[in-house]
Amino acid sequence: MNICLEAATYSSKFENNNTELKKKYIIENIKAINDVMQKAPGYFGSFGTRYPFYALGDSFVGDLPVIDEQIRYNNDLIHSIEAAKLTHWPCEKCLTIKGHLMPDLKQVCLPCPQIDNSLKPRKVINRLPDIDMWMVCSDLYVDKAKDYLLVHFNEHNMHTSDIDPLQTIYDFKEITDDIENGKMPSKMLPLDIHIIEYSKLSHLIDEIPFVLQSALVDQNIPYLPILPISLRKTWQNDDEAYNFVVDFLYSMTDFNFEKTLKRKLDYSRKIVSNAFDHNQLKQFLFSASKDSVKRRFENPVLQKRYCERVELWKKE
CB-based burial of residue 252 (10 Å sphere; 0-12 exposed, 13-18 middle, 19+ buried)? Predict the structure, then answer.
């Protein structure tokens, strides 16, 4: 089978499996990442965003829902493959020969005229689940933390999908088959790792209530840009900002925050959850999000988890 097609097919296979073993495996991935981060210089806590954090309840209780939007996203890739009548993914040969020379999967691949953008390597591996984790770091220790994380993630055979996209797909197939066969996988999901300075995160958390109130009064989209240091092949400053409002409302799950930062986060959450009702918070989220987030919210389990998340904020 075309490896590009395999990536989409196995991603849907993984998504459709909502067993307790899969949930346990994902939680073990999160714990392993946190174990490395906690020992890094300047560590002041960590947090997770996106999947699976928006899909699990407090303390990771509850079953993993099957998210139809992910299946639809995978099927889009399959349709692109069929429309291009692609029997063999040309990027496979190119990555085998040149992949180790590429600084990342944007600089070389994006300008390439040999294949449609929807079938380029980053678009393909984006179909695979990864663990999106952020380390909160002392402003003075960022460089030391970068060096430490890079070395120790490598030592534990934990990598980003950019390092070797083909191997990432092969490993993911093995992971999916293991879970299907009732076996705990020995390999880890791809990493999506970021570092954010303590001072920047502290400021963003403080600003959230004001930005939401302003959005309500002015009828605009709530926006707080965040440009982290992200691990791809190496560390790099992202050239496209995230909207912190989306992460805060949708999926931000904190671990071991330093006491002052934790108090700030709890206070900000309490203000937000008491100042706005569920419909207003959903409207903020929808206005600031891509269409894919809105489609995910068609899942009743995700709607329930979101409401539970906001209700917990009132008690923090």
Answer: buried
